[in-house]
Input
Amino acid sequence: MGPEAMNNEYLDAVRLFGWESGLEACGVPELRRGHISRLRTAAIEAAGAAGDSSALVSALSAGEFDEALWSPSLCRELLFGDTRPLGRTRLWQLLSKAQEIVRRRAVSPDRGESFVIDVDEAGKDGLSVIMPEDRDVCIRRVREANRLITSTSTNASKLVETFLRELALRRDATAPDDPGSYSEPRVVGRAVMVNPQADEASVPYLADAILHESIHSYVFMIEIATGDARLYDTPNLQESVVESPWTGRPLRVHFFVHASFIWFALGSFWRQYLESGETEWQREAMRLYAASQRGFRGKRLSDLIGGFRVSSAVRHAIEAVDERARNALPAE
Output
């Protein structure tokens, strides 16, 4: 049986990342509902262990619980792939806040946006808040980047809307001219954009990064649903690295798997932009598209992870990504 005949969540993702199939056809709503249901159940159990505060979250439907997670503090503390102990007082505060959010609709993204933009809280990893004089331009760039995604691909835009709940904008005072972004497996739905004030953080760059981080959250959610999240914590995979065929940097196997999906998805997105006839960002779109194709011109991705104990579902999906990406490569 070839990899395309296999039925698994990762292959659904591969189909979606061509941006031709919708989220419903690829099983995304069911995946999201299952994730929220697991989180809500874990929150009720944790609340019950802490005392009678379980009544608070029990009163929230799954849809209301999902809505409450728009709150940045709830997103950071409750939107986890696995449960962690929370003190009784803090748990009570969070669940009370969830009910208040649902009752008042107190936290929601700005009109026309699909995620909350956070510029106010300093990070705990050495990052600082955006300088006051840079905030307006950073927020404007992010919004323009989100509009670029929406105008290019309805399916890519819906992916962002589904999986990115909070985008934190931060400044790295040690290298303020170097933009970047990252996500954390334990906080699905939250991403950090570093130095969006930098000259290189153009609208296409930010669109690329927003889609990149949204895909991380989607794949994290698949890993939680399938149990593969625990697999990547084993010593064999924690300590093993693969040289990225896109950037040349060493990547842990876990993030090499993510990179394989992400670069394919980004290539599909920028190809769609270039084929649309739009010209405003053509030069940068061509550069980003070329960067996405680089890793599919050399050694097969399945050969690069051949000796590592990834799941068969992941391996089949990597083969499918490689095949589809190589078939779409333009002539050099």
User: Anything to note?
Assistant: DSSP finds 15 helices and seven strands in the chain.
